Each structure stands twice: as C-alpha cells, then as structure tokens.
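Progress note, sequence design subtask.
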C-alpha cells in the first residue's frame, strides 16, 4: 500500500498522460450461518482480504474498525503492525489522486469461526473437495451446500460480485470508476473432434455479467469488463491443467481453437447484450 501510494503520487506529479489506479482481487465474505461468531470471522477475513487495501487507497488510512480487526489477527498470531510516520501521509495524498479501482472477481468465501492453528491445503489438481483453508485468528472458509463450486472448490457466487461492487460504491464514495479487470472460470475443457463445449463457462460468465448490469443499474460506476482470459495459459497455482481461455491452446503444437464460449462472447459483443446459450452456433 505504501509503494502504491508513493508511485501513484509520483505519476501525478510527473503529469503523465492517462489514468492510474490499483487492481485487487476481491473476495466476497459471507457467514456460513448467521451467528455472532461466524459474522466476526466474516469481518476478520474481509478486513484482511479487502478492507486493508480499500481503506488505504480510498480513505487515506485505516478506519478504526479495520485497524482493530487487523490488530486482533496479528495479536492472535504473535505479531504487530509496524508502520512509519510517512506511510499515512502518503496514503492521504494518494487517496485524493487515484483515478480508478480494478476489481478481479472469481469467487466468494463462506466463513465459520475457527479457534485452531492455521491449516491450508490448496486444491491444485481439480479434485473437488480437497481444499482446506483455515487461518488462526481469522476463520475457516467452508463449503456451502446451496452454492455450486468449480472443480477447484471455488464457489460460483455471482451475488458476491454484485455485493462487492455495491459495497465499494457505498463505503468508498471517492472511488470514481471501477473496472472488472478479471472475471472468468477455470475449467477442465474437453477437446472432442476439434471442438470444445465449455457451456459451464458460458453460464458462469453470463451470470456474472448480469450481476455487473444489476450493480450499474443501482448507480455503481462500472466502466469496463475484461474477461479472463483470451486464451489458455499458465496458472500460477495449477500449471496447465486449469484452463480459463475463450480459445483452447494445444500446448504441444501451439495450435489455437475457439471454444463454444468464444462464439458466445463474440455474439454478446456484437449485440451489446447477454445472448441466450441456445443461440450459439459453433
């Protein structure tokens, strides 16, 4: 946050063309059941994952509640937040100058209270049900039987995207513009006779586009949407077995093949509308 603030202010003092902002991966946080303990776990994870960035960038410092939540996490882990006096001066200056917020959104988390030590197992293979994520002093991210997940245990929860957009607009009103910098679905694409039917990806993106439209209708200043991604590529945690692209890449030959989602997305772009799945011909 300090490096961001200083770089942003330097950009502005150099009178460079264009706009400057920050991109962050947002994660919706929802208590798995409505109890005080689970709500507190939700707040702790939200402070760590979202508010710690948003407060610094758009409030020019940390709200008292955010700081209390962060201090609680650190205390339970035997640590403290170390800051320098100039940090908050940099935050305050950059908060007046930032042009936009970029939101990466893929999933939300359902939280329950957790009193144990940290346990983290990353599902890097796409074998459903193998993820474990519980942080000491924060909470445990658990599955919600009512919400479908990807093969990598990521809840498919477009409501979370809508809620995060509305929340930013409500709680950080100095945020002038929001861009969806990344949104898409990792999937095990089946290549059959030169075609890739990735209908689940289309359904995922369509629901999330609808969530963006709903937020815009409520006054949220969303100015752009960037799908992730144009073509399959390396995933930092899943290698090449997790595919996000609209175009399938044969990694041995480097040949590209448009997936069903590519034809669908083209139709959406041409019509400026979310096209029904049954209208896709590929």
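Output:
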């Amino acid at each position: 946050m300090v490096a961001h603030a200083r770089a942003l202010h330097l950009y502005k003092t150099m009178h460079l063309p264009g706009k400057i902002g920050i991109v962050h991966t947002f994660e919706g946080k929802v208590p798995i059941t409505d109890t005080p303990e689970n709500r507190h776990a939700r707040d702790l994870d939200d402070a760590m994952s979202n508010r710690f960035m948003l407060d610094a960038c758009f409030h020019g410092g940390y709200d008292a509640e955010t700081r209390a939540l962060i201090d609680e996490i650190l205390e339970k882990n035997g640590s403290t937040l170390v800051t320098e006096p100039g940090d908050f001066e940099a935050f305050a200056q950059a908060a007046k100058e930032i042009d936009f917020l970029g939101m990466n959104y893929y999933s939300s988390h359902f939280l329950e209270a957790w009193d144990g030590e940290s346990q983290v197992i990353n599902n890097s293979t796409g074998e459903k049900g193998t993820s474990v994520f519980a942080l000491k002093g924060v909470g445990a991210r658990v599955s919600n039987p009512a919400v479908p997940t990807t093969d990598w245990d990521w809840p498919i929860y477009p409501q979370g995207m809508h809620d995060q957009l509305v929340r930013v607009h409500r709680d950080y009103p100095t945020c002038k513009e929001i861009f969806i910098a990344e949104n898409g679905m990792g999937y095990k694409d089946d290549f059959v006779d030169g075609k890739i039917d990735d209908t689940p990806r289309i359904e995922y993106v369509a629901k999330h586009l609808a969530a963006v439209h709903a937020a815009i209708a409520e006054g949220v200043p969303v100015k752009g949407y960037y799908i992730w991604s144009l073509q399959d590529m390396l995933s930092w945690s899943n290698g090449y077995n997790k595919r996000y692209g609209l175009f399938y890449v044969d990694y041995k030959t480097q040949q590209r093949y448009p997936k069903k989602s590519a034809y669908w997305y083209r139709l959406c772009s041409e019509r400026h509308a979310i096209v029904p799945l049954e209208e896709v011909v590929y």
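The chain has a mean pLDDT of 96. Work on this subtask will continue into the next period as scheduled.
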